[in-house]
Amino acid sequence: MPKDKTDQGIQIFLRVRPSKKPSGFLNYDNSDDRGLAFHVPKSEDLYVNNTRTDYKFKFNGILKEQCGQEEVFDKVGSQAVQNALDGFNSTIFAYGQTGSGKTFTITGGSERYVDRGIIPRAISMLFSEFAKNTETQYSCFISYLEIYNDKGYDLLDSDHESTARLEDLKKVMMLEDEDGNYHLKNLSMHPVSSEEDALNCLFLGDTNRAISETDMNQASSRSHCIFTVSIEGRKQGSDTVTRSKLHLVDLAGSERVHKTSTTGQTLREAKHINSSLFYLEMVIVALHEKGNNARSHIPYRNSMMTSVLRDSLGGNCKTVMVATISPESSHTDESISTCNFAQRVALIKNVAQKNEDLDPALMITRLKAELATLREEIKYLKGEAGEGYDLTDDQRAELEKLCRVYVDERNPMATLNIGTMTLVKIKDVHAIFKNLVLEARENGGGSSSDVDADKQVALLKNSLQQRDNEIAILVNMVKQGKKMPGTPATGEAKMIRGDSSRPAEVKEVSKVIPATNNRERVMQQLSEKTVGGVGLCKSQSTLDDPAQSFTWFKERYPGNAAIEENKALLKSKYAEAKETGEKVNKARSNINYLKTTIEQLRRERAMERVVEGEESKHEGKEDDGEVDPEEARHRKGIEMSKFIYKENFNKLKELKHAIEHIQRLLEKSRTKLQSDFDQWYKHNIDFLNRYGSLRNTESAGQENSKPVVYEAQAQAKSPLPRFPPQAQVPKEPLGAKLTGNKEADEDIMAFYKAKEELLKRNAQAK
Ligand code: ADP
Ligand code: MG
């Protein structure tokens, strides 16, 4: 069978992240949304380290500042998912300097639901396509690899929980077999059967990444992450199985890589920056030269990242690159480098082919069945079986069952195996088929005989039972949700964009301070530090009470806006789920009601028949087979309710996915809030321990308005109580430590719960 092949270059898209202060050097070619020109005024050439002032680039598409995540998925992600479903390997990789939006594009913002990136959306699309495509049976596996310093780590390795340091984790190794195929040793593949399972893998991996990041000092900018979905599809009635991989790749920050290659620095120097991106450049250059027949060796093996992505670069894969840039003038140099790199990548040709194999197991089953039939045929032809004896009723019923199974089987290659073939049996089979055809004709393709109606009722009952169970689960979820605090913030929620998966940065406010002496200057600087975006609290009484401190912190915490927004969204989704659930229930009871009515009608009709002695007195009305118009109306009613039921049930299922996703985001933000608060509180305490407690204590809220005067350490109050660390968190409500404000208290409790749950889930994942 000739394999489907497509020969195409790597598609390149440019994404420009929004900025408050764009340089104004970027000019889009609006005629086709594919061209971009940089015009850097001469006076500004400090931003670009050469003498040109104009640069022009062409892309397959430009995703401008205002382009949202949904549009990005439509333009870049959905085609890649479709390719993977069709059996082609497919890769999307994001390339650009740190902070330009690679993680935002691939994984998404970690706070707001609308900011979901390509991975969660791809997962969603995959599972809804699996469900739609009932002809094919899919299996799906997930792995999540991080490459840091040219070493691979399994982000889904359960040892992440117990091992604090990255170096102590098992390394993922690249092995090559005799046929030159690569295998990754120690990289786990997790079978997933639902969207939730797959999302759990993503969240678990991201959490592990965030944890190891703290250990590595801002490593997210230096590590590559490869999220891989492996898909296997078996079409009914076919012996073939398609296998494909979807790689979603968040590369390390590309800053300064170009400078090393353009100024010809040595490899060793480049290594300190990011050797694997340097090797990526080399691979791209080599591929380009290969395209011009100038060379044949491609140095994939120089780094783990290029080895893992070998197929995505110049191999059997449909690949898309998203180049991300920041439009500020200070980033112009990097942005131009990124665009230059993308232009080179666009020249690479990949030859993707459908990965289709014969599945031996499927073939053996089919051939065995065929063989059995052929054996019987031979026996028959040789006259060994003779004419045969008449079948008993049981045997005939058994034969009819076999025939029905054969007719109902959707696999076009299915065979009918009736055991020993005899003339009598063959005649019987003919009779059975004739009956089946007549039956079908009578029903006009549908099924209106009583037998079939009963069958349908039984089926419906069955599926209702199943739906009942599912609804019970959903209703439970809604109930649970009600218990969560969900009051939306009054007034307009302020959107704060920040990557909450990273630990809080301690920001120095760079202000020149007229220092009187060193100690005072250090003190002044420390007092102006912010942790997680929140400055020092100067109210002693607030700090004395951890619960109050938490409320104080939360009110000023920038990430809180997103938490509130998600809470509001969750609330509206719950409301929607409740409404939809009610519709489902109504449709269901309607079906039940109509069903009972039909049964009642039938009983009445049967009674009538008995009374009238099988003789119909009504003119033009016969019993045999004709459906009572009233019953027909009710059946139509059932059909309609079934439709409404199905629609709303599907909607309810979608809502369930959304709700679970938002709940996870909330959990994550709350955990982040906790760790930021812990750090902030520690900073406050450290500060006070070093520089004494505060005079002017009760000026909370206006602390930046005037310089604060600090008491000497000798006069410091007794040491402040420490906020109960996680291990001491009481299982009961905090009691005296709660604030008294209902909403705040609920938040405090919910957030401990979230943290506990996250830890539990991670422990379970082991
Ligand atoms: P990178 O992974 O390239 O280092 P990030 O994806 O972490 O960069 O982006 C840096 C910050 O900018 C994050 O806080 C992110 O939420 C924000 N950001 C990036 N791109 C966008 C965008 N298109 N829209 C809104 N915010 C964005
Ligand atoms: Mg990133």
Brief summary of the model shown:
It comes from Triparma verrucosa. With 766 residues, the chain is of the alpha+beta class.
What's the structural blueprint in terms of helices and strands?
Layout: E1 5-9, E2 11-16, E3 26-29, E4 35-39, E5 54-58, E6 61-63, H1 69-85, E7 90-96, H2 102-106, H3 118-132, E8 136-148, E9 151-154, H4 159-162, E10 171-176, E11 182-185, E12 190-191, H5 195-216, E13 224-235, E14 240-250, H6 257-262, H7 267-291, H8 304-308, E15 318-325, H9 332-345, E16 349-353, E17 356-358, H10 360-381, H11 393-408, H12 423-442, H13 450-483, E18 506-507, H14 518-527, E19 530-531, H15 540-544, H16 546-556, H17 560-611, H18 629-691, H19 742-765
Parallel strand pairs: 2-6, 2-15, 7-14, 7-15
Antiparallel strand pairs: 1-16, 3-4, 4-5, 8-9, 8-12, 8-13, 9-10, 10-11, 13-14, 14-17, 18-19
Helix pairs in contact: 1-3, 3-5, 5-18, 11-12, 13-17, 16-18, 17-18, 18-19
The structure holds adenosine-5'-diphosphate and magnesium ion.
Coiled coil: 560-604
Region (Disordered): 483-504, 609-632, 715-740
Biased composition (Basic and acidic residues): 494-504, 609-621
